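hey so u asked for the seq, here:
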Amino acid sequence: MTKSSKKLIFDRSKIEQFVVDNFSPMTQLLHELVDYGIDLLDKCGQYGGSLSDLVVTGHFFGHLVNVLDAVEIQLSKGAVLSAAISARSMLETYIYIKWILESDTERRGRQFYVWYLRQRRAFARQFIRGTSEYEYYMKQHSILPKLNDSEMEKEARKEDADITTILTNKNNNLINQYFDKLKKKKHDVAWYKPFGPNSINDMIKQLQLESEYYYFYSYFSNIAHAGSFEKRIKFDGKAVLFEPIRNPEGMRTLVSVVVPLVLWTFILIIEKYLPKELNIFTQRYMKHWRKPFLSVPNIVVKNEIKRVNKGNK
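ran it, structure tokens below
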């Protein structure tokens, strides 16, 4: 049973009830956006399209809807910090979708597919004795079980051959060769680098999304990489304060980022693949989503927090 002192750091029932009492319209809005995203995803599936279209809709847009669903679940539980990590993934996905659709969509989408296949093949080759990937694995992961399962190696050889056949066909061979040319030691460059930007920062500049990147992406990344010290520990001059594991403070800020991000992505997908849906989307926003989005309360939470002996900072 959880002790009362621990309840100050993590009280599930208290925080979940707080969210129900204060943020229900917001969590319901996110729920409806998830449902609408699933509806768009289904319509994109019926639309079909080229390989690049499927990369945009089935992979990247599907990922964004999946992560939006995670954000809804996390915020409904008052887990704002973990939701911020998911929001970072959403922002990156939006940037990728926008970049692929900006121009040269067929090649950019195929680049991701070729890169993905190369990652799968590299993983399979870790199980094939004699390959550089196998030797690298054995050297770098000496504490892990040795890869000497003959049946596993047989399956890996088949996957290696199958993927290589796809990578070297007339549609993929040129891009695959370019990845070979740019490969650094044991690892491929980022999927967007061949014929494209050198980094995501470079991509941001090309898309003129600097403000989104510097104000949101860097903030989310700091949380994702465990760099937000002030979110976990504070000093009040007398004691060290451990912040609660779940804290709804900052929920309004997060929603003010996530909802526009989702709406922008919906518009990208609709304008490219489902233009007849634009009027339906606009009406739904005006009638059902606009008011709850603009009415998210700004609540400052005064937490009871665990105090420990003050030490050196």
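The chain has a mean pLDDT of 84. Residues 4-102+197-308 form one domain.
lmk if thats what u needed
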